[in-house]
Design goal:
48% helix; D-Maltodextrin-Binding Protein, domain 2
């Protein structure tokens, strides 16, 4: 009997220890931005937690620079991040890897000029007060727009602001223009006009921008299955959006869930979603992205940032930081 009790006690203690470890391993903090994207429809109903088995804490950031700081401190394990701060983070040796592409940016980020600012054409940007989240994809696109017109940041009054700060400054007529993403961009357009979208700058000058999914190196190595399941859920919701776009209307439960997460009306979300490409498994694994193209884009971005004095060094090869393993597993189902 004593032997049996001892066995039961040891067995129970072992089970509790293993359960505690499992619970600790499944707590994941994921960074995101306050923009409307299809996967946010999966947050409200807990679909991502069900798919991965993780207990997820979502942490919102105002810019990729904040994501890099959180990754450096170990405060998050996974995050969205724009291609410009991604290039900066990888160049500085932060311990994360790109595991997938989250979205390809087009009209969801744009340079908006305020009505009454005196800006009617690109040349009028010179000397004006232009706000942007420093180090973001929007900042990179702004630098591209200036270069297209023979200017640099020295030719304008550059003001580093978060999206909420941009909205407040705009309301006070304290800035003349801003390069920013939705939903704040939509507010600016109520009293302004779009001069360039990020897509315009990419097509005209090669300043391509995207959001990546990145994961802490150690976390990725220890959570391969969960990470693949996380990406698979993203691929599926992205595919659903593009295949059934008409169904993603203001009355759609998915759009309502996205709207609730962003804090705007469902009717406002519909056109906001339309300004971006959300990659499914096939596009993600294509030569343009996880098949090699992403590393080339990151390298080009890093080299431009270094030439502009925004970062101090670049890596010889960014392919070492782009890991297609998890996206490939997710695509294979």
């Amino acid at each position: 009997m004593k032997h049996l009790l001892k066995t039961l006690v040891i067995g129970s203690a072992f089970a509790l220890t293993m359960a505690s470890q499992a619970m600790a391993q499944t707590k994941v903090t994921i960074g995101h931005f306050g923009d409307p994207v299809p996967y946010k429809a999966l947050i409200a109903d807990g679909s991502l937690e069900k798919a991965t088995g993780w207990k997820i804490e979502w942490r919102q950031f105002a810019s990729g620079a904040e994501v890099n700081a959180a990754m450096a401190s170990g405060g998050i394990q996974i995050s969205e991040i724009g291609s410009s701060p991604l290039s900066a983070g990888l160049s500085s040796g932060l311990p994360y890897q790109m595991v997938s592409v989250g979205k390809v940016i087009d009209s969801s980020e744009a340079l908006v000029t305020r009505n009454g600012s005196g800006i009617e054409k690109p040349a009028d940007l010179k000397g004006k007060r232009i706000a942007v989240p420093i180090g973001s994809t929007a900042h990179y696109s702004l630098m591209g727009a200036l270069k297209m017109n023979g200017m640099t940041e020295r030719d304008i009054t550059l003001l580093g602001m978060s999206p909420p700060e941009i909205a407040a400054a705009w309301a006070q007529n304290a800035i003349d223009a801003a390069f920013v993403w939705v939903p704040v961009q939509a507010k600016l357009r109520e009293n302004g006009k779009v001069m360039y979208t990020a897509g315009d700058v990419a097509r005209a000058a090669g300043f391509h921008t995207f959001n990546a999914w990145v994961a802490n190196d150690k976390f990725a190595a220890e959570n391969r299955d969960g990470l693949a399941k996380f990406l698979r859920a993203n691929f599926e919701i992205n595919a659903d959006y593009h295949k059934n776009k008409a169904a993603w209307n203001a009355d759609s439960p998915k759009v309502k869930a996205v709207a609730a997460s962003v804090g705007v009306s469902p009717a406002a979300v519909v056109p906001m979603l339309d300004g971006t490409i959300y990659p499914d498994a096939e596009l993600t694994m294509s030569a343009n992205w996880m098949g090699g193209g992403a590393a080339k884009t990151i390298k080009g971005t890093a080299e431009f940032l270094k030439s502009a004095g925004r970062i101090n060094k670049t890596a010889d090869d960014y392919g070492q930081f782009v890991n297609p393993e998890f996206a490939r597993a997710a695509a294979a189902k």
